[in-house]
Structures are given as C-alpha cells and as structure tokens.
Design goal:
This protein is of the alpha+beta class and about 100 residues long. It has helices spanning about 15-25, 55-65, 80-95, and strands at about 5-10, 35-40, 45-50, 70-75. It has a four-stranded antiparallel β-sheet with strand order 2-3-1-4, with helices on one face.
Length: about 100
C-alpha cells in the first residue's frame, strides 16, 4: 500500500530552484510519485508531497542521497484517512452523547 508524506526541503545556498524542481519531477517512478512541489517562504525553500510504496524514511534517504542540493530535509508523515475518519466519528459520537 502506498504511503504519502510531505517533505520540507532547504537547499544549499546558490542553487537554482527551477533546476531543482525539474530534477525532482524527473525522479525515477520506483522512488515515488511526486504529487506536488511548491516553493515556500520561510525557513524552507520547498514543500513536496510524494506517494510511494517505500516508507517516508526511505524516501527521505533517497532524496538526500540523490540530490546534493539539499541542505536540510524534514519529513511529515500523513496519518491514514481511515484513522482520521474513525477519530472524527468517535468525536462526533462523544459530542452527541453529551
């Protein structure tokens, strides 16, 4: 089952953002499907969403190993939709019981 994760990416100084985006978008499919890559303002340069059969930690390692431009990367794991739905249903039942 494929998992999705978001990655906050900071590039080394002096790297061209457009070139980096092109390289990420041309990643090998077996490493994961890039759903989005967006430039952001703040501590990081990009946020990207990748869905893959690999776990988020493996994707992060692949990114670090394949893209020398990356200075720092933070991984945000997505909680499965099933868990979110169950949690929401439980909260709704609790509220209705009060």
């Amino acid at each position: 089952m494929a998992e999705r994760a978001y990655f906050l990416i900071k590039l080394e100084d002096g790297n061209e953002q457009e070139e980096f985006v092109e390289k990420v978008l041309s990643m090998k499919e077996e490493q994961g499907e890039v759903e989005s890559i967006d430039p952001v303002i703040g501590e990081y340069d990009f946020v990207t969403a990748i869905e893959s059969e690999l776990g988020p930690e493996e994707i992060e390692e692949n990114l670090k190993n394949n893209f020398s431009e990356i200075k720092e990367i933070t991984t945000l794991k997505v909680v499965g939709l099933e868990r979110k739905v169950k949690s929401s249903e439980e909260k709704l039942r609790e509220m209705m019981a009060e």
